[in-house]
């Protein structure tokens, strides 16, 4: 689906459920502090329930890579889309 800055995102399919997911792979060795920070962020995202927030299904480490399983969104890339400023977004939530 895309790559850059030490990461690649793959579209993967769960065969039994016939469902697509996005698998984000973060390359390189991550020290314990970085892994804890990422785990905290994922724990926060996992509790978010909003149609505009991509669901996170979990994280694991394999061979020095961090792998994050996310909800697959087929709406295309956000690259080049205008992003609202913080004061505007504060009223959305």
What do these coordinates show?
- Residues 1-93 form the Protein kinase domain.
- It comes from Hordeum vulgare subsp. vulgare (Domesticated barley).
- Keywords: Kinase, Transferase.
- This is Putative mitogen activated protein kinase.
- 25% of the residues lie in helices and 35% in strands.
- With 93 residues, the chain is an alpha+beta fold.
- The protein has a single domain, classed as Phosphorylase Kinase, domain 1 (2-Layer Sandwich).
- Strands 1-2-3-5-4 form a 5-stranded antiparallel sheet, with helices on one face.
- A hairpin with a 2-residue loop joins strand 1 and strand 2 (7-14).
- The protein is globular.
Helicity level? 10-25%
Strand/helix succession: EEEHEEH
Give the neighbour order of strands across the main sheet. Answer: 1-2-3-5-4
Secondary-structure content class: alpha+beta
CATH class: Alpha Beta
Q: Number of DSSP strands?
A: 5
GO molecular function, one term: protein kinase activity
Protein name: Putative mitogen activated protein kinase
Pfam families: Pkinase
Keywords: Kinase, Transferase
Which keywords apply here?
globular; 5-stranded antiparallel sheet; Phosphorylase Kinase, domain 1; 25% helix; 93 residues; alpha+beta; 2 helices
Quick structural gist:
The chain has 93 residues and is α+β, with helices and mostly antiparallel strands.
């Amino acid at each position: 689906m895309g790559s850059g800055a030490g990461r690649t995102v793959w579209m993967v399919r769960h065969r039994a459920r016939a469902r697509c997911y996005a698998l984000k792979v973060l390359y390189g060795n991550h020290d314990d502090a970085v892994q804890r920070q990422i785990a905290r962020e994922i724990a926060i995202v996992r509790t978010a329930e909003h149609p505009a927030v991509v669901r996170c299904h979990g994280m694991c480490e394999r061979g020095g890579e961090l792998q994050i399983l996310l909800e697959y969104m087929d709406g295309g890339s956000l690259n080049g889309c205008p992003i609202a400023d913080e004061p505007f977004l504060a009223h959305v939530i």
